[in-house]
Amino acid sequence: MDAFLLQILNGLDKGSAYALIALGLTLIFGTLGVVNFAHGALFMIGAFCAVTLQRLLTLSYETVDPERTDFLGNPMTVETPYVEAWFGPATGGALVDWAVPLAIVLAIPVMMLVGFVMERGLIQHFYKRPHADQILVTFGLAIVLQEIVKAVYGANPIPTPAPSALRGSMDVGALVGMEAYAVVYPIWRLVYFVFAALVIGGVFAFLRFTTFGMVVRAGMADRETVGLLGIDIDKRFTLMFGLAAAVAGLAGVMYTPILSPNYHMGMDFLVLSFVVVVVGGMGSLPGAVLAGFLLGILQSFASMNEVKSLIPGIDQIIIYLVAIVILLTRPRGLMGRRGVMEE
């Protein structure tokens, strides 16, 4: 039972990242009809928003501390972060420690701006082009963004720790009535799952309960009719592209303590997330979320030593095997609309 619960938690952890990225991909495809292969790069840019804020908060200046000397008796120089000088050691230290969650404040406007520039500057010119053209141009854009990040931040992963209060582990087993310390799980991974659930719930609530969201959903179903009613649906869809970029960016921000940011992390998640979208159903938001968590859990169970000893390498291909089965039996995906991907 403890091994089962542990694999469920691992699956929810992986599935949270898959679901958030796939949700943004589906928003873009459902509103604009664009297959955006640059979406993984948005996840990467969000992660580097956290890196950037951490570096800004740790900018420091040198001062001479006469009370501290080296082995020769000379006064030592110490690095003092500007935030500690401005706000005091306690507040400044807390800002540095909580850099990752605080990066959400930076990432939202940055990712909205990046999404707007991408959509207005490039992607809008490919709305009526074949999906193959869209894939090629967005994949090329992803490579360009990846190389820019590599040039600015370097090729090596950059450790970005979680706040010190959230770096430990939690006795999850005891919470569900199991023996103490039967299932111990990192706190930050649980935080990431809760965060993903809140973001996903917020996006669905926005689309369902706001006038803006209702118009967008109507435009996704029948864009031409909504346009004939005098509504500028194109402007709303552009804002939805920005929202999708923000969702991907927030997923990247909060994932940095789990996986140290590097320039190719976007590509690593893009392929898996695109498979998630196809399995869930192109254009289906509930399908993307369901498939994200489902495939995350399947991949987690496939990574167990008992399973890998029976089928070596199954953890590396399980997602693709599921995708093949789904596409052969139900080409539009688990919750896809009839006619989508079935021609």
UniProtKB/TrEMBL annotation:
One of its GO terms (cellular component) is plasma membrane. It holds the Pfam family BPD_transp_2. One of its GO terms (molecular function) is transmembrane transporter activity. GO terms for biological process: amino acid transport. It comes from the Bacteria. Keywords: Amino-acid transport, Cell membrane, Membrane, Transmembrane, Transmembrane helix, Transport. Its main location: membrane. InterPro entries: ABC_transp_permease, BCAA_transport_permease. It is found in: Cell membrane. The chain crosses the membrane at residues 15-35, 42-61, 98-123, 190-216, 237-258, 270-298, 310-329. It is a multi-pass membrane protein. Belongs to the binding-protein-dependent transport system permease family. LivHM subfamily. This is Amino acid/amide ABC transporter membrane protein 1 (HAAT family).
